[in-house]
Amino acid sequence: MMMNCGAMNATTPSSTSWSASHSSKIPMLLPRAICSTQRMCCGSGVHVDACVSTNVSRNAKDSMVWSGTSPSLYSKQPINKFLLPLRALVTSTSQDVPIASLIGREKVGVLLLNLGGPETLEDVQPFLFNLFADPDIIRLPRLFRFLQKPLAQFISVARAPKSKEGYASIGGGSPLRHITDAQAEELRKSLWEKQVPAKVYVGMRYWHPFTEEAIEQIKRDGITKLVVLPLYPQFSISTSGSSLRLLESIFREDEYLVSMQHTVIPSWYQREGYIKAMANLIGKELETFDHPEQVLIFFSAHGVPLAYVEEAGDPYKAEMEECIDLIMEELEKRKIMNAYTLAYQQVT
Ligand SMILES: C=CC1=C(C)c2cc3[nH]c(cc4nc(cc5[nH]c(cc1n2)c(C)c5CCC(=O)O)C(CCC(=O)O)=C4C)c(C)c3C=C
Ligand SMILES: [Fe+2]
């Protein structure tokens, strides 16, 4: 059986800590921020730990880091290793205090980041242009950066016919917007059930609703605290990194955003809820076979250029492999001991 592991339509994460990095290779995420942990308490004893951005410092490796908190719980990967976390989200249970008195006049928003996809066949070429014009997708040497857009135009036109065939075969467009909107609505409902009256926004990197559009709405709504959640379980420079780099540039130029408290969840592949959800899916699928124990579990992940991993320190491969180990451990606890393998799809 086959399991796609780089998928962005996974279950909602519950909480995690995050770290941000800036070297010349990995984008600096939402800069000029220092994280001092703030606790917002909510009704029914729910607590929200959020981080406040105000300043930054540099560590020995010339990485921009958020400071003011303890080291990350998830420090195995390069992206996290050099960085101090911001902490967000709902944990614990102790007090019963009315929500209004705790969140007060704060307006909490959650911004879900995703890739975006063409909604019609006419969208395919301009969507591909946006994708290939991103230097986190096609990385040209500094001297040749002026060629980025002409090259994007050339590749998008050349690739569009084949791409259109693919989208035509799944109904004439990408389902990503629809799926992401549904996730946003489920997350909103779930937060409200936990007495966190947050608004949830969707910001796509390469198609509507663009991240810029979501940010405009966030400003119009007067959001004062923002949680940024890329919907990619594992961090890669080419996915979450690209979205966060864009967000960073939007924040840098906007007075309202610079002073807004925000926190980012860079990856969440190791969260218990996600691992259990993946194990549930695999377990359910195995049951459809006559001899489930003989089935090979085939994990399929997106490929990223080797240079990202080996030279730029992209943690994607490490996070993916750890994620699969965790899923297999979870299956073992359920007495499911199948053979498994992981393969990376070719990057075209
Ligand atoms: C050319 C380099 C690319 C890199 C690096 C890359 C990384 C990467 N992508 C995903 C997930 C998705 N990518 C999707 C579309 C897509 N990606 C690329 C190229 C790179 N991706 C292209 C050219 C396209 C367009 C599709 C095509 O015509 O071939 C999508 C689908 C979006 C949709 O329409 O619904 C996903 C999902 C990950 C997880 C990743 C690195 C970790
Ligand atoms: Fe891709």
UniProtKB/TrEMBL annotation:
| InterPro entries per UniProt | Ferrochelatase (IPR001015), Ferrochelatase_AS (IPR019772), Ferrochelatase_N (IPR033659)
Q: Name one GO cellular component term.
A: chloroplast
Q: Where in the cell is it found?
A: Plastid, Chloroplast
Give a single Pfam family match. Ferrochelatase
Q: Name one GO biological process term.
A: heme biosynthetic process
Matching CDD domains: Ferrochelatase_N (cd03411)
Q: Which domain of life is it from?
A: Eukaryota
Q: Name one GO molecular function term.
A: ferrochelatase activity
The catalytic activity of this protein is classed by the Enzyme Commission as 4.98.1.1
Q: Which reaction is the catalytic activity of this chain?
A: heme b + 2 H(+) = protoporphyrin IX + Fe(2+)
Which EC class does it fall in? lyase
The alphabetical list of record keywords is: Chloroplast, Heme biosynthesis, Iron, Lyase, Plastid, Porphyrin biosynthesis
Q: Which pathway does it serve?
A: Porphyrin-containing compound metabolism; protoheme biosynthesis; protoheme from protoporphyrin-IX: step 1/1
The similarity comment for this entry is: Belongs to the ferrochelatase family.
Against PANTHER family, the record matches this protein to:
FERROCHELATASE (PTHR11108), FERROCHELATASE, MITOCHONDRIAL (PTHR11108:SF1)
**Biological role stated in the UniProt entry:** Catalyzes the ferrous insertion into protoporphyrin IX.
Could you identify this protein by its name? Answer: Ferrochelatase
The scientific name of the source species is Populus trichocarpa
